[in-house]
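I hope you will forgive my troubling you with a question about protein structure. I should value your view on which stretches of the chain appear to form regular backbone elements. Here, with my thanks, is the record as I have it:
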Amino acid sequence: MADLMAQQATAWTIVQTDAGPVTLASVEALQARAVQLRDWVAKAAASAQSPRTQADEQLAAGGAMLVARATDWAIPANLQLTTQQAKVLTDRVVADAHRAADLKGQESAAGVLGRIGVKHHEHQVEQDRSQAAIQLHGLLVSIARSAPLSTFAEADQQRKVAFDLETEAGQVDAQIDSAQASAKACDDELVHRQEAVKAMGFDSLYEAARLKTSGAQPVDSPLILKAGEQAYLSVPTTLARMTTRTHYAGRSSGFSFPIGHTGIRYRVGSFRGEPVQQQSLTKLDTGTFVLTNKRLAYVGRTKSTSVALDKVMHFEVYNDALSVAREGKENPDFYLMSNPRYAAFLLNWVVA
């Protein structure tokens, strides 16, 4: 299972971009991987506990052999006191076990009150045996770990089994750490990717990584391409331009009086008006916005335009439109489209 996760973790390409490392995978795929990694970590942590528990038991058994056969190996100075303490605790556990067995026999022969006293004494003996066993277990494991590599065959084999089990558990721990780090990296990247989607309306970080590794992919378009020209974007659009309208605004001065009984009033005075100009965006045509590696073009029903990329002075992005100002033309063209941010993103990459 661990090897499978390691293979999956290296299956995707990670691209270093100006915004940091980006995985060449969709946001949904990253989310799925993070969930998969956490599930694997939970299962691996549970599976690693078994060999670790077995190793602890094997070490305790090996330590018990070393204490029981203390004369069969050379005990180093730093383990002599520990070995003596382990021997005392071993005798105490054995003695408590014998005492508990004796009390069991007394319990069956005693009366009601006697059984109550025996039960109480039996409980005390069991508590002492349990405490001594816990202390002894820690000492035996310590002795098995700290003893020389070579003592006697049976103890050495017991310890080797324990060390192999610990190595196995350690390898799983390392893979767990790696999986947790990968899951966190997925989470961190997801935050940045989702922020980019929210700001741009599409996964701009993924697109930047894809463009850096494989460039823009050619698409079909209604534009007749020139030699060596490739279209990278072809989307429905409405061509619009700013138009100016002038009207006069002002006020009159003077007075008016009726003529006869007709009800018509005659004004005497003057009118002073000033021209006021108003600009509005006027839709001119519907067609297709095309971006190539050489130019930006519009192919419409009644109008068509084309401007070389080196003639583009600047462009601005709106919620529903992209405006492009070209060299030698006073007013920019406005292209109303569904995703102007992506068009500007790709245009910026092509120009750069």
